[in-house]
Amino acid sequence: MRLVQLNVHPLKSGAIRPVSSTTVLPRGLTDDRSWMLVDGDGRLVSAREVHRLFHVVADTPSTDPSVTAALRLRAPGHADLLVDVPRAAPVGVHLFSLDLQARPAGAAADAWVRAVLRRDDLRLVWCHDPEQRTLQPGFSQPGDHAAFPDSFPVTIASLASMRRLDDWIVERALELGEEPPAPLPVERFRANLVVDGDEPFGEDRWSRVVVGDVPFRVGKPVGRCVMATIDPATLRTSKEPTRTLARHRLVGGKTLFAVHLVPETSGRVSVGDEVRAE
């Protein structure tokens, strides 16, 4: 197998930032999901609630070397915003059921995201200490940690599985007398690593993955949420891929696609690297 895509999401639910090479840390890919938006109660606000977040482009020096601050935010119709490393005292935030601490980015950043996303309760926060967060019991080990992903530090998806899913979607549409849709892009699943060269859903049997020289432990399959049904370009929602996943990949009440990984060490990975699965 080969690594064919590397994707970083500096702002949780923001636009995907493809890179050709990056450093893997115990917490995940450098800068991945280090920033997130919260509401007035400190609770996560994602593209599940505000689809326009998909159009907010967040870059760091690791995703764009021209960036001269800790974070650069861009959105259509708005001036770019540069955000320095926050120095304010940490505040309590809530990532689903997790109570964590994060540093607020400040009034200028809050004003920018409120104007772009048209919500006056939004705040931008930064994960200053990824080690504060432990991972899901039963699927992690002591010391495992992450910044602000939903569950685990890294996700990996297979293009072979994506092609099979697209075939199933067309088959289902024809059965129902619907116009077959265009293939869905693998980006719908917002995976960090995308590989090709295995059989469809061969990842169901993986327990460990080595990308280049960097080893990862498989945590668990990824249970998909409503975000995969949102077209990141048009922001419209549809029944797919959830409808078809529920038919072919429903396990324990969850529709499964892609796999969570935990890095076992730090190192550099690049598009084109060999990928070995055990």
UniProtKB/TrEMBL annotation:
The MOSC domain extends over: 128-278
Pfam families reported for this sequence = MOSC, MOSC_N
Q: Which sequence ranges form a coiled-coil region, renumbered to this chain?
A: none
Q: What is this protein called?
A: Molybdenum cofactor biosysynthesis protein
List the taxonomic lineage.
Answer: Bacteria, Bacillati, Actinomycetota, Actinomycetes, Propionibacteriales
